[in-house]
Description:
Blueprint: E1 3-11, E2 15-23, H1 32-40, E3 51-54
Parallel strand pairs: 2-3
Antiparallel strand pairs: 1-2
Amino acid sequence: MALAAVLGVPDERLGEEVAAAIVLRPGSSATTDELQRFVKERVASYKYPRHVWLVDTLPMGPSGKILKRNISAPVA
C-alpha cells in the first residue's frame, strides 16, 4: 500500500461507517477483501473499515497532505 485515507461514509443504520480509500504501490496487487481482512486482524472491531475501495490517486494539498474532504465513496 502506498497511501490510504480513512474516512466516514453515511450509513442508514448507524449514521456513519468507517471506510478506506487505498492506493496500492506500483506493481503490487491486493483485493479489497484481503486489505479489509488484514486490518480487521490488527485493530479493534469498531475501527476496521467496513467499506474499502482502490483508487489510482488521492487528492493532495500543497503541503502534501491527503485532502479527505475531496474523497467520495464510489456509488455501489
